[in-house]
Amino acid sequence: GPMDVLEGRDGFFQTFGAGVNGAGLTDSLGRPLEFFSPGITVKPYPSCTRSHPALDATLELRGRSLFVPADIEEVLCEVSPEVTKVVKISNPRNPMEAKFSMEFCVACALLDGSVAMDTFTEVKLAHPNVRSLMAKVRTVDVPALQSRAPFAARVTVRTGGGDCYSAKRDRGPW
Hints:
The chain is of the alpha+beta class. The chain has helices at residues 12-16, 52-63, 81-84, 95-98, 102-112, 122-126, 128-134, 143-146; strands spanning 72-79, 137-141, 153-159, 164-169. Strands 2-1-3-4 form a 4-stranded mixed sheet. A hairpin with a 4-residue loop joins strand 3 (153-159) and strand 4 (164-169). The two termini are 24 Å apart.
């Protein structure tokens, strides 16, 4: 594996550290032999971790029950540039590529109310409702979000009636 798995690009600190740089990390290593802070983290969705803040925001919007997927005209996912360096496959051709597609993940979150292992299947990927909603999802880099958190996201859903609903996340639930 990479020698800079903790501090390097896409390393543990960048992904989960919220600005941690690793200084003094080994000062108390082994005393005790467990992580107390920030504790154990959970990866709630089987997609790229960089998509998680946008998925949390999307699921919050869906949970408010202010619209139904059929009413959606556009979904704007504004994300920090670090997100689109990896989550960049707009038109996935297989379940693995779908894990790196904001369009697919957000469409499924809006349609199903969840993103789980059974989201990433050939059948789901080819489903007309998923494909139709994917075409309405647009992902845009917003450098100002980078200062908030490496993977920050703001999701806005605009309906055919002109209503707009937004939610943002600076980081995932970890």
